[in-house]
Amino acid sequence: MRISLNQTIGCLALALCAWMPLSPAHAEIINYAEKGRPEDPGLELLQEDPHDIILFKESAGGGWVKTRLLDLPGRSMPSNPKGQLKFRIIGIETKDFVAKWDDVEFIDFWEKRLERETADRIKEGDFTGAYPFLAVLIRDYPSRPNLRTLRSEFLMRDAGSRYKKGEIGPALAMLEELHRYAPEYKPQAVLAAIGMMTDSLMQKLMDENKLELAQKLLARLEKDYLGKPLASIKKWNQIFLEMAQERQAGAIAALKAENFREARRLSRESIYLKPSIENGKELVRKIDQIYPLVNVGVLQTAKDLDPTRLDNWAARRAGRLLYRVLFEMKGAGPEGGEYEFLFGETEQSPDRMNFSMMLEPEKLEPPLNGVDGFFIADRLAARVSPESDVYFSPWAAALEAIGLDGPKQIDCVLRRPNVLPSALIQMTVDGSWFGGEPGSPTGDYRRDVVEGDVVRYTLVGEQRTASQPREIVEIRTESASDGVAKLLKGEVDVLDQLFPADAVRLEGNRKIRVARYPLPSVHMLVPCSDHAFLAERTFRRALVYGTNRQDILSGELLESLEVPGCRVLSGPFPAGIEMNDPLGYAYDQSIAPRRYEPRLAKLLMTMNANQLEATANRKKEKPAELKPIRLAFPPENLSRSACEAIKSQWELLDLKIELIELPVGEAFPKPGTADLAYVAAAVWEPIIDARRVLGPKGMAGSTDQLIGLGLRRLEESKNWKDARDRLLDLHFISHHELPVIPLWQLVDSYAYNRNLLGVGSEIVSLYQNAEKWRLSQ
């Protein structure tokens, strides 16, 4: 049904009575009026449905109506309209209305109104108010002829407003968006403004000593504005060139003064500031040839130096520089570790009852070629004696007799078949083996200077090769992320340990190589005091149920990234990196880690408290008090992050937790200083390391009878099947007795600049091939 203009007013009056708001909480929206003009709703306009407004001439009675969008050619008023205009009024959807074109004074089209609102707000500097109108235009009317200019004007003027407020970054981003979107819009003015803002931003970054970010910004500007007159590019290129030339001159002067450390630092800073500086790489290469030096970023510098340490990553790493090991683990094989005899070759009889070592002094360099079989046999015998400082009970239990077949062959007769005798005699070779002082180094390097967080290891004697580093300098970084920044800047050449998430991110960098150590580290909490509650298995089990280990591993340590091999554990042995991985030969995959169940944890804590109270009452003693638990961790941020998360979760169980950060270089607390220690252990050979972790003289110091029985049965294994079966039994026992609280295993990685050659990809320890390292440019 159609209603003419003469009928419209009456219908509108009737409709107005029927069209009332449903609730006083909603404001009434007026869609027509008999006189006047509609009010400006401001930003609330965008809350209304799209509509056009028809304004009628006074001669036709005046007034106005809001209509559904009119279907007119070009969405504009005809130049010479004739006849009638058909429309539907908002809110009166069931009726069609018509009006003579002669009665229509003006039509305010929806999209033109949006454009007008946008333009007015831009002119007034109200960019917050203009943005939603502009966004609707871009979404619904992308082909409007005026939109490109309107959007460009918005970006230009809003950028200027932000710059005046000191918001340089956002202002620059808007101008660059404008330049990409509409390069034809005032190109000289836009480029001049970009140049001014980039100059200010570069200066700000330099003042804040954010050199790396400044260089990245300059490199991007050069790429994005190639061939365009951006004044800031030329200015800052010249500044960086002058800075690089200054450092290059300093490097040359230091080289002449034979201050090789300073020369190396300045030469590298020079090419870092300006990679294209003339003779920059040649100077670095020359200094490296004269005095090869490698900077290594570490989370911990070493205090003790022992390449066989199980619980101290830094001691194990740096110890390899100063000491050699009688049998050094080189990697992992299908049946345990692969070991290299320092002085020659080995041979084991088919029945595994005899183990022979053949010395080859003619192939060794001094002083290794001066050791004979008699001395080594004496050291092997000392390892059997409980009074000796090198006593090791598994070796004592395995060895029946030692024989010599001349000075070059040692024959060990075993009490029973042993699957891996070489693992039992990983002895540190010190100076006493060559007539020197006990404990004196035997490796290629010596610890020279310790300056705060910097430790220098210098080469002793002649270089094995012309490129062997004369110095290896360990630089302790504040955090893993700080180490990554130093590696990218060139301040260090190697990072010995990465956060798993950092390793994933760095793999995409073409200048950096990331490699994984083949053997994962096992993270656990080790009781280390006489805390009455921790001595109880029920309480330790409560702590396991009260720790959301998967959440800490995935969220805190892996940062929600998937890293193969990183997983929560149910026991103290590594689980391997892949399914059926021979590295996991001691891990029972059928034993699932305990789930996070805080209610069960609370129940177990209550049960434990009741048990202790009942025991004390029977003995007529005072019940043990639940004292705060002191949790110690090494001074690096991976362990710190994990322990802070554990503390937060245990506090939800109403436990009081004290975090204790160990001194630099220490991985295990001194007696009486802590109750639990967070340990990242290198349990690489469970068949031997089980006792080092769980035994009464091991980390856990366990005197549990079941644990002791499991260890003795393991050491009586006659073949690999026996060894694996008994390790699985020991895993089962450890899962229930909890001599240590298992957390997770991490696949550790290292990273280095691709200019450093010879590092290796399947190394167990970072310095395994240090004598082969070579720098290139």
UniProtKB/TrEMBL annotation:
Keyword Metal-binding: no
Statement: the UniProt record of this protein carries the keyword Iron: no
Source organism, top-level taxon: Bacteria
Extent of the signal sequence: 1-27
Keywords: Signal
GO biological process terms held by the UniProt record: peptide transport
A GO term for molecular function: peptide transmembrane transporter activity
Membrane-crossing residue ranges in chain numbering: none
Pfam family, one: SBP_bac_5
Stretches assigned to the Solute-binding protein family domain: 475-662
Name assigned to this protein: Solute-binding protein family 5 domain-containing protein
UniProt source species: Aporhodopirellula rubra
